């Protein structure tokens, strides 16, 4: 039997023998679906940069952006499958992501490498902040496994933020 429309909200859930109380699983599933939307949005934005970057650094940025996108797609699967592991329904279509994502839309006027790197630094910065908050939020809901999943994503995103920011740094930008 199909799940009714009213039960396809971000927090709908099945019964489970996972010993985290149902109301806490509800909150965790809602968080995971929010970050699933953010992450799908980030993935498409990195691909947008991969396809459209121009200039003398084209090839290295084209390759870097694809590497980043592949990694972000891995986060999408981790988040969606943690939501379903907890008994939830993953909300992972492009339309769902577009409706729910907290990230700003990609600047369609970006052309040169620096413009794409700056756009991605801004978005990776916001994304990393949201994921870091989710580590503590899931821990305080009694789910160290979800906190560990967020920690894994956070560590990788911080490193990628370094990769991106290094393009914009020099002795002149030292504090
Ligand atoms: Fe490609």
Can you put this structure into words, describing what you see?
It is a single chain. The protein is mainly α and 175 residues long. It has a single domain, classed as Up-down Bundle (Ferritin), CATH 1.20.1260. The chain is 67% helix and 0% strand. The protein is built from five helices and no strands. It has helices spanning 22-52, 58-85, 94-100, 113-140, 144-166. The N and C termini lie far apart (60 Å). The model has no long low-confidence stretch (mean pLDDT 94). The structure holds fe (ii) ion (FE2).
Q: What key phrases describe this protein's structure?
A:
175 residues, mainly alpha, Ferritin, 5 helices, 67% helix, 0% strand, binds fe (ii) ion
Helix-strand topology string: HHHHH
Small ligands present: fe (ii) ion
What does the largest sheet look like? none
Query: What is the second-level CATH architecture?
Result: Up-down Bundle
Number of domains: 1
Number of DSSP strands?
0
CATH topology-level fold name: Ferritin
Tell me, rounded to a whole number, the average pLDDT: 94
Tally of DSSP helical segments: 5
List unreliable stretches of 5+ residues: none
Look at the structure and give the CATH class.
Mainly Alpha
- Share of β-strand residues: under 5%
What structural class results from the helix and strand content?
mainly alpha
Task: Report helical residue fraction.
Answer: 55-70%
Full CATH superfamily name: Ferritin, core subunit, four-helix bundle
- Give the overall form: elongated
CA distance, first residue to last residue: 60 Å
How big is the Rg?
A: 18 Å
Write a short abstract of this structure.
The chain has 175 residues and is mostly helical.
């Amino acid at each position: 039997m199909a799940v009714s429309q009213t039960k396809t909200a971000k927090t709908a859930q099945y019964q489970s023998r996972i010993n985290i109380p149902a109301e806490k699983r509800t909150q965790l599933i809602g968080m995971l679906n929010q970050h699933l939307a953010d992450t799908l949005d980030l993935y498409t934005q990195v691909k947008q940069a991969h396809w459209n970057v121009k200039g003398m650094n084209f090839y290295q940025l084209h390759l870097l952006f694809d590497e980043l996108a592949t990694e972000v797609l891995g986060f999408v699967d981790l988040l969606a499958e943690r939501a379903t592991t907890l008994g939830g329904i993953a909300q992972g279509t492009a339309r769902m992501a577009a409706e729910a994502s907290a990230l700003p839309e990609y600047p369609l006027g970006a052309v040169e490498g620096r413009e794409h790197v700056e756009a991605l630094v801004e978005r990776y910065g916001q994304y990393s902040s949201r994921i870091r908050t989710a580590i503590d939020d899931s821990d305080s809901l009694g789910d160290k496994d979800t906190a560990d999943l967020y920690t894994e994503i956070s560590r990788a995103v911080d490193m990628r933020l370094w990769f991106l920011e290094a393009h914009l740094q020099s002795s002149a930008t030292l504090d």
